[in-house]
Design goal:
Radius of gyration: 25 Å
Largest sheet: 10 strands, mixed
Shape: globular
Number of helices: 21
Strand content: 15-25%
């Protein structure tokens, strides 16, 4: 049965005097477009769909609401004189109305826009929702009507990576449910599909566990800063309605100090004098006593509580940063045993795929990955990615040199620079390839990436501008997997990310500007200036940077091979680096240098 939705537009066709670049973000995999402008009004349009899905119906409603007040066309663009033409029908056709959302969900869609119709087709409702998002990006307000420029459009689109995520940390500083929903809204506007919630950490335990309510009662910052099951099911439902999966993380056996307040008997190394750098990366330090069976049983109880709330088949068990200072010489053995048993139980009892941080995990160990999927989230050492892949793990890339969005804001504890300086600009994020230094045979096991916004100095009041539009840059790279480029390709991305940021702000997202508004209105001036800098870099600058990074031994090799920094920016590979005697462990550092230069 067709669902007929009374909607919005009568289209009018006009010749567009001053054309503009497409403003779709992420850029579609394949598209063609023309030079005509369609003017969109608000009556006599019927939108039909063959699906009765409530989620898809809600997406159409959001689309209709946007059309009542779209973002404006730039004032420097003149849409020209319009003349009447008729458009009275549009359609959404899906192969399945299933509302199931998982890693395997098909997100492909097609979109066609011409003077007679708008058509969206997809195998799933979630692909159709992406088609609606793209269509929304094409519609702007000019003078007294809504317009779609550069029509007709024919788009075939799909993501390169299936896991495109944002990690939030509501344990260091509590985040309201409303703020988390605002992040989900921004994710949907960028076709990001995974929200990773780092729900507990050393500083607080804000998760209400029905089997161990004493943990949040004593370990949360206050009773108002506890996520009740109803709060979390609300977030999960809201996210699904926006096409976003929610993956919870419960980090153990380290990063667990807050459990001390509710159950001190299962904790080790939690005295004030234990909070030193040798024990943990930041205060307060403390570990679960992995030799105490009650510690493991408590965590499995918490996991069971979480499985009743979070229905995703992926489940993050943390496993980050365990030092020898607490458990002594047997640390690696105790740590590996804990992870092996936990991964097995998450898989067999929870029917979930476990995810864990690379951190201090022995990624050469066998902890079950030969029997079932285990995903390693690589953050600290890019070289670990290949080792993990060779050892049978699947991989999520969250390499801190590109994807840690809390870096570059100073050290919250001691002053000075943050440990992971510099600030990760949107260009640095965009230019990070998930497959650098990885043989092609392992590409299929890199499931995607996540940008991480750790919460030591982040809360409701500054989260959004730290996240956006930098997470947008990652969204397009994971969707298209095209490099940043140079010349006109780089100019196009500067223009489109500025337009995407403004489009997000217009819809209630708080996002930092990517450039002065002048550069969006008159891009030729800024493009020319930038291109002149990139094409004529200071001749000695790269040598100074190599010395700053303790890579001065490679200067002679650079000059001997005749490489310059512009060529290296575009063409350097691990094979080049190997010729210089660079070990793979230095590879991420070196690529980071190139991005900074």
């Amino acid at each position: 049965m067709s669902l007929v939705l009374s909607c919005l537009f009568t289209l009018v066709v006009a010749t567009f005097g001053a054309t503009s670049n497409p403003t779709i973000w992420p850029v579609p995999q394949m598209f063609t477009n023309g030079t005509t402008t369609l003017t969109v009004c608000s009556s006599n349009f019927n939108f039909s769909t063959n699906s009765q899905s409530a989620i898809l119906k809600n997406a159409v409603t959001r689309f209709n609401n946007y059309l009542m007040k779209p973002a404006p066309v730039l004032p420097t663009i003149n849409p020209g004189k319009a003349y009447a033409a008729s458009l009275c029908a549009g359609s959404i056709t899906v192969s399945s109305s299933s509302e199931s959302l998982s890693f395997e969900t098909d997100e492909n869609y097609t979109l066609s826009v011409d003077s007679t119709s708008i058509k969206i087709t997809s195998n799933t409702i979630y692909g159709a929702m992406y088609g609606l998002t793209t269509l929304t990006q094409l519609i702007r307000y000019a003078s007294d009507s809504n317009v779609i420029m550069n029509a007709p459009w024919s788009i075939t689109d799909y993501p390169h990576y299936k896991h495109r995520g944002v990690m939030l940390d509501p344990a260091r500083n509590f985040l309201s449910v409303d703020m988390i929903k605002r992040v989900i809204n921004g994710m949907a506007l960028n076709k990001l599909n995974v929200l990773h919630l780092h729900l507990i950490d050393a500083q607080s335990f804000p998760f209400y566990s029905k089997s161990h309510p004493e943990l949040s009662a004593a370990g949360a910052y206050s009773k108002e800063k506890i996520y009740q099951p109803s709060n979390l099911t609300d977030i999960v439902s809201y996210a699904k309605n926006m096409g976003v999966r929610v993956i919870p993380e419960f980090d153990t056996p380290g990063h667990t100090f807050a459990i001390k307040f509710g159950d001190p008997q299962i904790m080790d190394c939690v005295e004030v004098s234990d909070s030193v750098p040798a024990m943990c990366p930041e205060p307060p330090c403390g570990y679960l006593n992995v030799s105490n069976p009650n510690a493991y049983n408590t965590i499995m109880d918490i996991y069971a509580d979480a499985w009743d709330i979070f229905d995703d088949t992926y489940f993050h068990i943390g496993a980050d940063e365990v030092k020898d200072a607490c458990w002594g010489k047997n640390t690696n053995q105790l740590y590996t045993q804990w992870l092996s048993q936990m991964a097995q139980d998450v898989n067999l009892k929870g029917k979930r795929t476990p995810i864990l941080w690379s951190g201090d995990v022995d990624i050469t160990a066998q902890i079950g990955q030969g029997s079932f999927d285990i995903i390693m989230q690589i953050w600290d050492n890019a070289a670990d990615k290949l080792t993990a892949l060779k050892n049978g793990f699947k991989v999520i890339d969250s390499t801190y040199t590109s994807y840690y969005l809390d870096c570059g804001f100073g050290n919250w504890l001691t002053g000075g620079n943050s440990w992971c300086d510099p600030y990760k600009s949107w260009m640095m994020i965009y230019n990070h390839s998930l497959t650098d230094g990885i043989p092609q045979q392992y590409f299929k096991d890199i499931i995607g990436g996540e940008v991480c916004l750790w919460g030591e100095s982040v809360d409701d009041y500054n989260l959004q501008p730290r996240l956006w539009p930098r997470a947008s840059a990652a969204a397009e790279r994971w969707w298209s997997d095209l490099p940043l480029g140079t010349g006109s390709k780089l100019d196009d991305k500067f223009y489109r990310i500025a337009m995407q940021r403004d489009w997000m702000v217009y819809q209630g997202i708080v996002a930092s500007p990517s450039q002065p508004e002048f550069c969006t209105l008159y891009p030729a001036y800024c493009n020319y200036y930038r291109d002149d800098i990139l094409n004529n870099p200071p001749p000695a600058d790269w040598k100074m940077k190599l010395k700053d990074y303790n890579l001065h031994d490679f200067i002679d090799a650079f000059e001997e091979h005749g490489w310059d920094m512009i060529e290296l920016w575009n063409d350097i590979s691990f094979e080049h680096a190997s010729q210089m005697g660079m070990k793979q462990g230095h590879w991420a550092k070196f690529k980071h240098l190139l991005k900074e230069i």
